[in-house]
Design goal:
176 residues; alpha+beta; Aminopeptidase; 31% helix
Amino acid sequence: MNFIRLHSAEDPRFHTLFALYEQSFPLHEQRLPRDQLDALRHPEYHCCAAEENGALCGLLWYWEAASFLYVEHFAILPERRGQGDGSRALHALRQSPKPIILEIDPPEDETSIRRRDFYLRAGFCQNAAEHIHPAYRKACAPHRLVLLSAPAPLEAGEIGAFQSYLRETVMTFAER
């Protein structure tokens, strides 16, 4: 699995991936298109196309902080789901020497439980800390998510550093 970093909306893959983003995530977890384009210019933001053998598989959009990677959005194209692409993408990502952090919906229904179990099988750990994600859009409220991390659970200081980074860096690319 290869990750190809997109630097602008001029990349022909960008529009396919942005459509996947809009289809895969609820509105309260999406940036406005202009905010997404602004984020592309940040040196720590990696808006990547996941590809395997030249075929587009999905998107992996993450932030590379000094001490961790934060996977903000990850989705596989619907026609590629169930073929192991997601597992292979996470395996490739986990080759990073930095800890990886991502968020999921609380495991409260069949879909969210399956998603949590997928990440646990991929080597992620569920963290017990309460986590509220700020809203990307003015019309939306902050929402509770569950923190997952690999290769190990996060310590309190790591959670605090992540939450500060989220507020002070990631969320500067949200509707004000």
